[in-house]
Design a protein that fits this description.
CATH superfamily: Beta-1,3-glucanase, C-terminal domain
Strand order of the largest sheet: 1-2-3-4
CATH topology: Metal Transport, Frataxin, Chain A
Shape: globular
CATH architecture: 2-Layer Sandwich
Largest sheet: 4 strands, antiparallel
Helix content: 25-40%
Number of strands: 4
Distance between the termini: 18 Å
Radius of gyration: 17 Å
CATH class: Alpha Beta
């Protein structure tokens, strides 16, 4: 809690309660709240950018996606998908325009949601580069803080933290055993 108080930007400070730190849209980043438009300017920037140039990125499986904003909608050029322009709440919570349709649109929506939260949506080549996450504003400071204070920097700090394997999920096809050793002072 002391680290949060010392590091969190002013707009993120109200997320701290006595015993926990709340997710942004559960407090002052929700619609109609003081920071309810937090990502709006950034989303407008990337929508304008990709109306004039292609968004090109590789997903975690190495598949290249290419898209361009046409008529206010991100339209797939390499794959058949569309993504409507999201709101701040859509980005923080992976809902609305970032939770519609079928594949491959759903995975593109997840990639875009993660890129907005990590502050890399304006650079397709940065989508999978962990060293670039949370280096350019705006980004989700809550997510950055949770990752920085988690084992190996892995955490599920927003709905698509698993994009590019940044979650703390353990997955094995044929496990033989699971041993959990919990200790605390």
């Amino acid at each position: 809690m002391a680290a949060w108080a010392a590091q969190a930007p002013a707009e993120f400070q109200p997320l701290k309660e006595e015993m926990r730190i709340m997710a942004p849209c559960k407090r002052n980043f929700n619609e109609g709240q003081p920071n309810g438009n937090y990502f709006d300017a950034y989303i407008n920037q990337i929508w304008n950018q990709y109306a004039n140039e292609d968004l090109v990125y590789k997903n975690s499986e190495g598949v290249t996606f290419r898209a361009r904003v046409e008529g206010g909608v991100l339209v797939g050029k390499s794959h058949n998908f569309t993504v409507g322009k999201p709101t701040t709440q859509d980005a923080f919570e992976g809902k609305g325009e970032l939770a519609k349709g079928e594949e491959p649109g759903r995975s593109v929506q997840a990639q875009l949601c993660a890129a907005i939260n990590r502050g890399v949506a304006h650079k397709g080549e940065w989508y999978g580069d962990v060293s670039k996450y949370f280096t350019e504003n705006p980004y989700n400071f809550y997510s950055k803080f949770i990752h920085e204070n988690s084992y190996n920097g892995l955490a599920y700090s927003f709905c698509y933290s698993d994009v590019f394997n940044q979650e703390a999920l353990i997955h094995h096809i044929k496990p033989l055993a699971l041993v959990i050793d919990l200790k605390w002072d």
